[in-house]
């Protein structure tokens, strides 16, 4: 009996020493110990920095860039849109009100390439019933008069020996005049207005359907050369036009430099239109009328650091931050003040020094580590 009591006491003592009391089935109180965290995994440190081991950096593709400070041109962001070059694009409009008919090659589709001078469609003039009846009556009168003139000319030619030559010539002239007037009126009744491509290019827009009734001056086709597009931006500061040193626009993932052509001398919607052009086929991927963001560089400069736009993120306080690599496996968030630069990069004017390494790729993934 004493041996049983000693074994029970020893069992209770060992259970108390381990700190875990065993419960019977169905009597678990849920007092599980905390999960063990590996010391070599990515984690957010108490000071806000992130510990990111080298294998994890290679796995998520972290890249860093050594920053350089310098005088950066001040940039202004303007809202713009893609427009056609007036020398490499055109509009096809109907001169007369009438019904559309397909051209020799059919009605062109959007995106189809056309050549200068190619007939795209025909417009059959629309005339009222009364007007057409009057024209037909006039044509009938001319044809009847022409028949009488032909018979009179035959009689005069038969009497050529006794009739003066001037009478025969007058009859011939009258017959020719009646024939020309009848032909002109007949052609007018059957004539069609040909819609011709003014330039070589691509059909940007088409409002043509076979049998469609159009009004005079109505836009039917719009043709543009995609290799010679331009960008038009609106500046609400008229003095900006005299301080432009360069400009750029982002197309896809690439930055396309623009050359400044000129500024208008009249306001449009309280803004001054500015026109820019690009070299080669840099803007061929854009569509006519597509809105774009134009980054205009001025001649004045400011001191700062240029970093990729993808490096700038937001913290929970909605502040702009970048992740700076302070150690081989440690990144610290740095609150910065930014300004627009060229679309692909931004200018950091405060909060970042030259010579620091900034995460340029996978910065979003670093920001998500908790």
Automatic annotation (TrEMBL):
The keyword Signal applies. Residues 1-23 form the signal peptide. It comes from the Bacteria. One of its GO terms (cellular component) is outer membrane-bounded periplasmic space. Residues 305-361 form the CzcB-like C-terminal circularly permuted SH3-like domain. Coiled coil: none annotated. One of its GO terms (biological process) is plasma membrane copper ion transport. Residues 25-47 are annotated as: Disordered. Keywords: Signal, Transport. The keyword Transmembrane does not apply. GO terms for molecular function: transition metal ion binding. PANTHER family: CATION EFFLUX SYSTEM PROTEIN CUSB. This is CzcB-like C-terminal circularly permuted SH3-like domain-containing protein. It comes from Thauera linaloolentis (strain DSM 12138 / JCM 21573 / CCUG 41526 / CIP 105981 / IAM 15112 / NBRC 102519 / 47Lol). The lineage of its organism: Bacteria, Pseudomonadati, Pseudomonadota, Betaproteobacteria, Rhodocyclales.
């Amino acid at each position: 009996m004493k041996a049983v009591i000693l074994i029970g006491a020893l069992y209770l003592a060992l259970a108390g020493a381990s700190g875990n009391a065993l419960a019977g089935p169905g009597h678990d109180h849920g007092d599980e110990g905390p999960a063990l965290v590996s010391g070599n995994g990515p984690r957010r440190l108490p000071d806000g920095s992130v510990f990111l081991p080298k294998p994890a950096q290679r796995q998520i593709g972290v890249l860093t860039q050594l920053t350089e400070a310098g005088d950066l041109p001040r940039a202004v962001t303007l809202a713009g849109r893609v427009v056609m070059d007036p020398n490499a694009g055109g509009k096809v409009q109907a001169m007369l009100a009438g019904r559309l008919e397909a051209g020799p090659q059919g009605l062109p589709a959007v995106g189809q390439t056309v050549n200068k001078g190619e007939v795209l469609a025909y417009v059959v003039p629309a005339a009222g019933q009364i007007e057409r009846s009057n024209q037909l009556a006039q044509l009938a009168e001319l044809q009847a008069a022409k028949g009488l003139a032909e018979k009179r000319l035959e009689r005069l030619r038969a009497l050529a020996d006794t009739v003066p030559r001037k009478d025969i010539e007058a009859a011939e002239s009258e017959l020719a005049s009646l024939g020309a007037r009848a032909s002109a009126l007949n052609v007018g009744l059957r004539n069609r207005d040909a819609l011709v491509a003014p330039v070589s290019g691509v059909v940007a827009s088409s409002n043509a359907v076979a049998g469609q009734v159009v009004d005079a001056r109505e836009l039917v086709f719009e043709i543009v050369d995609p290799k010679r597009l331009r960008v038009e931006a609106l500046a609400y500061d008229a003095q900006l036009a005299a301080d432009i040193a360069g400009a750029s626009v982002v197309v896809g993932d690439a930055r396309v430099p623009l050359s400044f052509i000129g500024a208008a001398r009249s306001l449009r919607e309280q803004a001054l239109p500015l026109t820019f052009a690009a070299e080669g086929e840099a803007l061929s991927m854009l569509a006519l009328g597509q809105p774009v963001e134009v980054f205009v560089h001025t001649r004045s400069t400011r001191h700062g650091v240029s970093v990729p736009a993808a490096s700038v993120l937001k913290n929970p306080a909605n502040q702009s931050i970048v992740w700076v690599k302070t150690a081989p496996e440690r990144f610290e968030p740095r609150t910065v003040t930014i300004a627009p630069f060229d679309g692909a990069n931004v200018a950091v004017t405060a909060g970042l020094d030259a010579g620091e390494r900034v995460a340029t790729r996978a910065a979003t993934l670093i920001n998500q580590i908790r």
